[in-house]
Amino acid sequence: MEFIVFLIISVAVLFFLSRRSGNDLYEAPRTPEKVSPWGTRHSRPQHQPIKRPAPPSPKPVIAGPAYVTDGDGLRIKKTEIRLFGVDAPEFTHPYGKKAKWALLALCKGQHVRAEVIGTDDHGRTVAKCFLPDGRDLSAEMVKQGLALDWAKFSGGIYRRHEPSDARKKLWLADARQKGRMHVWEKFEARQKARSAGS
Fold first, then answer.
1. CB atoms within 10 A of CB 186
2. Neighbour count for residue 131 (Cβ, 10 Å)
3. What are the tens digits of pLDDT across the range 146-181?
4. Mean pLDDT, to the nearest integer, of 137-147?
5. Domain ranges in the chain?
6. By the 8 A CB rule, do 108 and 154 touch?
7. What class, spelled out in words, does domain 61-190 have in CATH?
8. Within a 10 A sphere around the Cβ of 169, how many other Cβ atoms?
9. CA 13 – CA 35 distance, rounded (Å)
10. For residues 137 and 127, is the Cβ–Cβ distance under 8 A?
11. What is the pLDDT of residues 56-71, one digit of tens each?
């Protein structure tokens, strides 16, 4: 009986020692070692900066006193600027002078901030222009009925500010937006005929 106990203890010790050395034929299969994303299981993660996408670059800004050229144009620091998303009548068209004086009244003595959007077909800088109190000059001109929302460029954001009679009153600007330039040509021909007759 003692022999059997001795034999069992001997087998247990041998089994235990063989497991520690890794040479046992009866060794249970081991689960695969987990490897960290930073390398082997022994390496420690390094403090690496997190790569974040760069923030979008801010829009160029031109700021300063504004010299008004017409109902949707001004000059700041020698840069010709066209108000974004709106169309005011030309100076020689009906309401053209009134539109210029209205924009002049808004800008007089003010520091105008122009956030550049791009350039137009005539090489002028197109910008969203703001007064120091945050008012958008394009919206203000539309509210006064002296400029029309030009959805082709604005996406229609100023249309809700248009008075109900604005498109009837500013019919030449409306015609330009609709591509009916023959209406302009007729108007200008009549203007020339009047000038020649007087």
1. 11
2. 16
3. 999 999 999 999 999 999 999 999 988 888 888 888
4. 97
5. 61-190
6. no
7. mainly beta
8. 15
9. 33
10. no
11. 656 799 999 999 999 9
The single residue of 75, 80, 124, 162 carrying the catalytic annotation is: 124
In the numeric block, the tokens 């009925």 are attached to: 145
Given the DSSP bridges, would you call strands 73-76 and 67-70 parallel, antiparallel or unpaired? antiparallel
Query: Choosing from 82, 113, 140, 176, which is the catalytic residue?
Result: 82
Percentages helix, strand, coil for the chain (3-state, rounded to 5) are 35, 20, 45
Please report, for residues 3, 90, 198, the alpha-carbon distance to residue 95 in angstroms, rounded to integers and kept in the order given: 121, 8, 22
- In sequence order, the 6+-apart residues with CB closer than 8 A to the CB of 28 are none
State how far the Cα of 73 lies from the Cα of 124, in Å rounded to an integer: 9
Dihedral of alpha carbons 80, 86, 91, 95, sign: negative
Alpha carbons 66 and 108: distance in angstroms, whole number: 8
Q: Among the options 90, 113, 140, 176, which is catalytic? A: 90
Check if 188 is active-site. Answer: no
- State yes or no: is 90 an active-site residue: yes
Whether residue 82 lies in the annotated active site: yes
Q: Which residue has the tokens 């009866």?
A: 26
Radius of gyration of the chain (CA): 39
In the chain, the amino acid numbered 109 is G
